[in-house]
Amino acid sequence: MTQPTQATYLRTDTVPLRLLTPFPGNAKRGEVPVILDSLRRNGQYRGLVVREIPNGPLIVLAGNHTAQALDSHGRGPCSFTFTVDGEERPCGICHGEDWEPAARCEVYVCDDGTARRINLVDNKSADLGSYDRDALAELLSYLNEDYAGTGYTEGEVMGIVHALPPQDVDEEEFPAFDEDIPTQYCCPKCQYSWSGKPS
Asked: Which of 29, 67, 100, 188 is deepest in the core (most CB within 10 A)?
């Protein structure tokens, strides 16, 4: 049977991790602990992209590190909890119950060349992106200092939020810089000036 030269969707399945094979030769080295933190706080919000080979294995084309993070959680239940509006919530992976390591998967068929291209572009496209720092700072500001599951540490957030110069500043409101007069545009908690350097 000739396999398609483009990915052809078959189904969405929850697949035990023991039935999944990592992509052979995957060149990306992901931050598995960061992904695990996200899964525990947010749950699995995106399926693994898996290739089905007739009479063969299920191979993970995209999401290899998510699979590793789920596997590192181990069987549930775990003791992880977090608090939202005063209410304690369980782990987003096992939900505080018995859980056999598994992942939600989008299952496709394709040929070998397409499988390699999918793996390569999934890894590379994230590297090619950039950030709108104003938009990122605004998004982070809504989290009320609870950065669990975002991939950002509190120190990184302080550097991002307070490294931005004031927007639409009236020159009369902020007079010309005088190095003899200490100038600080942010909170005393983080001690960052708008230039992003410790004051």
From this structure: 67
Helix, strand, coil percentages in the chain from 3-state DSSP, rounded to 5: 30, 20, 50
Count the alpha carbons within 13 Å of 114 in the hemisphere toward its beta carbon: 15
| Cα→Cα distances 113→25, 40, 110, 194, Å | 14, 34, 8, 49
| Element of type H or E holding 174 | none
pTM: 0.76
| 141 sits in which H/E element | helix 133-141
Q: Please identify which residue in the block is written with the tokens 């100038």.
A: 183
Cis before 77? omega within 30? yes
What 3 state SS string does 92-112 have? CCCCCCCECCEEEEEEEECCH
Instruction: Give pairs for 89-96: CB < 8 Å, separation 24+.
Output: 91/40, 92/39, 92/40, 92/41, 92/42, 92/43, 92/44, 93/39, 93/40, 93/43, 93/44
Residues 6+ apart with CB under 8 A from 159: 192, 196
pLDDT digit string, tens, across residues 32-81: 999 999 999 999 999 999 999 988 999 999 999 999 999 999 998 999 99
The token pair at 125 is 């496209």
pLDDT one-digit tens code per residue, 106-158: 999 999 999 999 999 999 998 899 989 899 989 998 888 888 889 998 889 88
